[in-house]
Amino acid sequence: MTEATNVLGGKLENCCTSPMTGYYRDGKCNTGGGDYGAHVVCAQVTEEFLTFSKQRGNDLTSPVPMFNFPGLKPGDRWCLCASRWKEALDAGVAPPIVLGATHASALEYMSQEELKQYAVEE
């Protein structure tokens, strides 16, 4: 298995381990065959985005213990579905992202320029 790369062409960095994120709950926005949502965008969620997501039927603020999901609050980092981040971008409510922790496959959904506009300063 090859090592995952980020949208900048480097090694995929950790997104968050508290709460533990990623499709594989490994702290990284890795993806694979079973990840139909493409959870590849490392975002720092905002209140505005969380409200938007809930209105679209995906409540990210309520805990779901059976999936080891604590519920998110503004400022948390989380591996979002690429299509949801793009939808939020188009609606004007996209949260900032961490480029080094966003999987290269995100570029199948949006441009590097779009991603860079929302980059978190580290």
Automatic annotation (TrEMBL):
InterPro entries xref list: DUF2237 (IPR018714)
Protein name, entry field: DUF2237 domain-containing protein
One Pfam family hit: DUF2237
